[in-house]
Specification:
A hairpin with a 2-residue loop joins strand 17 and strand 18. By secondary structure, this protein is an alpha+beta fold. It is 31% helix and 16% strand. It has helices at 14-19, 59-62, 130-134, 173-183, 240-254, 295-299, 334-350, 355-360, 368-382, 388-399, 401-410, 451-455, 461-477, 483-490, 493-508, 520-530, 534-537; strands spanning 54-56, 115-116, 141-149, 155-158, 162-165, 188-194, 201-208, 211-213, 264-268, 273-279, 282-288, 311-315, 318-322, 327-328, 364-365, 416-418, 427-430, 433-436, 443-445. The protein has a domain at 332-537: Aminoglycoside phosphotransferase (APH), C-terminal lobe (Aminoglycoside 3'-phosphotransferase, Chain: A, domain 2). Strands 2, 3, 4, 5, 6 and 7 form a six-stranded mixed sheet that branches. A five-stranded antiparallel sheet has the order 9-10-11-13-12. It starts with 13 loop residues before the first helix and ends with a helix.
């Protein structure tokens, strides 16, 4: 998915935002710094930041960016649920809960006191009333507690839990909208604090807000989510989104692009922060990444614009990209997927003989010596997760790596650009017009290493056809090379280097973010063991 941006006016959010225009993408969504005035629910008065009942935070910081503060406006679809305190109804029509879950609590079914947002058939799988949702199993929904702080780092407290549809925990657009609709509080999600396994269950986030209605009840959290952590990402800290959004807004201005509403926060996790904007040039995406993934910002501007999204700007750890019309291609058929391979191979061939340029961009290095050293180091860290037989087989594989890399080089497929996470979900488009996304793991190495993530999405005969597409693409350009043998030799190297990547993630993210990747290095090592037999790999 491409990234997002921000807007003009004294490093602020511009005249359109000041007038109160909403994002055209999601008219019910509060966006990031929504408009200053809102239509209130029927029978309720709308309020502005001048209302004494509205608490305001971070005035010196965000007002410098042209941000206006306001009271809550709420969707009429927001409803109270069973088990609430009668005297604590907020102006949005939602009510405070009787109690908050503790940070370490685990409940198999929904808390009857949670605020259900959007509990209609289309959003919650056909459960039409709040009481039904409150008693439904947690396999279909997420129950989320949001801890609030100010952009200046003052801890405010926990909101009551809200219930939203199940989904990836890193995707936060629904959550931001739900908090606005339930409590009239505009938030920017900073980071995950707790998540269960799977796409449903009970989770907890930290978010910042500029204003909060006085009647919204907050509960003191059981822990301090603002405690210092040396690995905390820039955009996961209070005020952290400000720099990225301000840069993007200025970049839009330099490109002559006018924002048409508030930015929408789409995703945040340990690998990226993504925002979407409606602009005079269509949708624009801001993607910010941590330092260990910032190769993408260096690489994208020099890649063929017919293969990657149009780049409006790139800076340290962030890019501003044009939208790619269409969808992410997770469900593409086999013929279409083989076409994606041709797109990648054509780009890789443009970089043959240009390894020095790639070195100057500080890409990951998957050539023999650095790759073997990184693999051995990762195995030393993960060996405790493997059983004795797995360790024995892995040792035999690693002992043969120098010979394997030498044989790979002898195949005549030159080292070039490697995407390193090439799968259908990282291709977007429609009707034969596609772009390859997400270059944050890219490297220098043998291009057949890109087989690994592609094959993981396929089985049986489909894998053989994908391998054939890679082989044909290279042998057509370099008739003397043995791309088929290179594919066989590269097969176990892909998951070995995948383990290196996952280990790098875990080494650079704070503990609360690790559930996204826990166990991934060991799983990748087991996969390398399984496919060491080349016949099994290409079956």
């Amino acid at each position: 998915m491409p990234p997002g941006d921000d807007g003009p006016d004294a490093a602020g959010f511009g005249a359109d935002a000041a007038r109160g225009d909403r994002s055209a993408d999601h008219p019910d969504d509060p966006g990031c710094f929504g408009p200053p005035y809102h239509t209130a629910p029927e029978g309720k008065a709308s309020r502005t930041a001048r209302d004494p009942d509205v608490k305001e935070f971070g005035r010196s910081g965000w007002s410098d960016l042209g941000c206006r503060r306001e009271g809550p406006g709420a969707s009429a679809s927001t409803r109270p649920v069973r088990g609430v305190l009668d005297g604590l109804t907020s102006s949005t029509g939602c009510r405070a809960v009787r109690s908050w879950p503790r940070a370490d609590s685990v409940r198999p079914r929904r808390d009857a006191n949670a605020v259900v947002v959007g509990a209609g058939p289309s959003e919650l799988g056909g459960l039409g009333d709040a009481e039904s949702v409150a008693s439904a199993p947690m396999d279909a929904h997420r129950e989320v507690v949001v801890v609030l702080c100010t952009p200046d780092g003052e801890l405010l407290g926990e909101l009551p839990p809200v219930v939203i549809p199940a989904g990836w925990w890193r995707d936060v657009e629904d959550l931001v909208s739900a908090v606005w609709r339930a409590f009239g509080v505009r938030v920017r999600i900073l980071r995950i604090l707790r998540m269960p396994d799977g796409d449903a269950g009970w989770g907890r986030y930290l978010a910042e807000t500029d204003t909060i209605p006085a009647e919204v009840s907050l509960h003191p959290p059981d822990d301090d989510p603002l405690a210092e952590e040396p690995r905390r990402l820039r955009y996961a800290q209070p005020g952290g989104h400000r720099t990225d959004l301000g840069w993007a807004w200025e970049t839009l201005r330099r490109n002559g692009i006018t924002p048409l509403g508030s930015p929408i926060q789409v995703r945040t996790w340990n690998l990226s922060s993504i925002w979407r904007f409606s602009t005079s040039a269509g949708k624009v995406w801001l993607k910010a990444t941590p330092a260990f993934c910032d190769v993408e910002a260096r690489l994208l501007p020099v890649l063929d614009p017919g293969v990657v999204p149009e780049v409006f700007g790139a800076d340290s750890g962030r890019v501003l990209l044009a939208d790619v019309h269409g969808t992410d291609q997770y469900e593409a058929n086999l013929v279409t997927r083989c076409g994606f391979i041709g797109l990648l191979v054509g780009l890789q061939q443009q970089w043959i003989g240009r390894v020095k340029e790639l070195e100057a961009l500080a890409l990951n290095d998957y050539r023999a010596a650095p790759a073997i050293a990184a693999i051995e180091s990762t195995i030393d860290r993960e060996v405790g997760a493997l059983d004795p037989e797995e360790r024995r087989r892995l040792t035999r594989l690693v002992d043969g790596l120098p010979r394997r890399f030498a044989a790979l080089e002898a195949c005549g497929v030159p080292e070039t650009l490697v995407h390193a996470d090439f799968h259908p979900g990282n291709v977007r488009g429609e009707g034969g017009d596609y772009r390859i996304l997400d270059w944050a793991d890219s490297a220098i190495g043998n291009p057949l290493l890109d087989l690994r993530p592609t094959l993981e999405y396929l089985s049986g005969a489909e894998r053989a056809k994908v391998v054939e597409a890679f082989v044909t693409g290279w042998q057509r350009t370099l008739p003397g090379c043995d791309a088929r043998r290179a594919a066989e030799l590269a097969a176990p190297l892909g998951p070995l280097l995948g383990a290196v990547t996952y280990r790098r993630f875990l080494d650079n993210i704070e503990p609360s973010e690790r559930p996204y990747h826990d166990g991934d290095p060991a799983r990748a090592l087991r996969r390398a063991i399984e496919i060491t037999d080349v016949a099994t790999t290409l079956a």
